[in-house]
Amino acid sequence: MPVQVTETIAIPDSELRWRFSRSSGPGGQGVNTTDSRVELVFDIAGTKTLPPALIERALARLGDRVVDGAVVIAASEFRSQLRNREAAMERLAELLRRAIAAPPPTRRATKPSKGAKRRRLEDKRRRSDVKKLRRSTDD
Q: Where do the structural domains in the chain lie, given as residue ranges?
């Protein structure tokens, strides 16, 4: 089952590697016999699914999460291996969605309006008056 990142981008199963191990989380007696912990490995640098520009953006944004061009997602919060697989796929999709998202538009710097400056100074003056009333008059 492919991982749906966006409406147009889906990562096929052939580009995903799975590893399973015993989880230290919940599971009762079955925790010692079932390989419910899941690690999902996706090679971002070597993928054919994403365009080169998105690969560069993802590698730059993920930084330390990427080891040898691959990102590893671990899931062990559920007792079932199937639910942990689903959780890992959801996490990978969300991670990639954020990593390949277009950068926000640059902010144009603006000056505060005259009214905003006036209100700020009035508030400062009012606050100063309040604090003056709290001072002791023993001097």
A: 3-100
